């Protein structure tokens, strides 16, 4: 086994690891952006309240229409 060759290979691996560590530390410092979320957007409390009121009126109108069906026009 060539001791000199083994030491040289270990130093090369150390250099590569130092580069990777430095790049990871840089990402950590810059606060790498998180990937954008996919799917539905989150609603705040006011938007939820507006939707709730709108759906309450919608279902009340549906119940009212069901109780008073339109007469058949003959």
Q: Which bin fits the share of residues in helices?
A: 55-70%
Unreliable stretches = none
**If you average the pLDDT, what whole number results?**
87
Strand content: under 5%
Cα end-to-end separation: 105 Å
SS summary, helix count:
2
SSE pattern = HH
**Oligomer status:** single chain
Q: Give a quick account of the main beta sheet: strands, pairing sense, barrel closure.
A: none
Class per helix and strand makeup: mainly alpha
Q: What would you report as the Rg, rounded to the nearest angstrom? A: 33 Å
Instruction: Note the overall shape.
Output: rod-shaped
Number of strands: 0
Describe what this molecule looks like in 3D.
The model has no long low-confidence stretch (mean pLDDT 87). With 74 residues, the protein is mostly helical. It is rod-shaped and about 100 Å long. The chain has helices spanning 3-30, 45-67. The relative contact order is 0.05. The chain starts with a helix and ends in a 7-residue tail after the last helix. The chain contains two helices and no strands.
Short description:
It is rod-shaped and about 100 Å long.
Key traits:
2 helices, rod-shaped
Ordered list of secondary-structure elements with their pairings:
Blueprint: H1 3-30, H2 45-67
């Amino acid at each position: 086994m060539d001791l000199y060759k083994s030491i040289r290979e270990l130093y090369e691996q150390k250099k590569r690891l130092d580069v990777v560590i430095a790049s990871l530390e840089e990402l950590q410092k810059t606060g790498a952006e998180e990937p954008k979320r996919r799917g539905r957007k989150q609603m705040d409390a006011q938007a939820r309240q507006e939707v709730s009121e709108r759906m309450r009126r919608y279902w009340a109108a549906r119940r009212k229409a069901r109780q008073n069906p339109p007469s058949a026009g003959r």
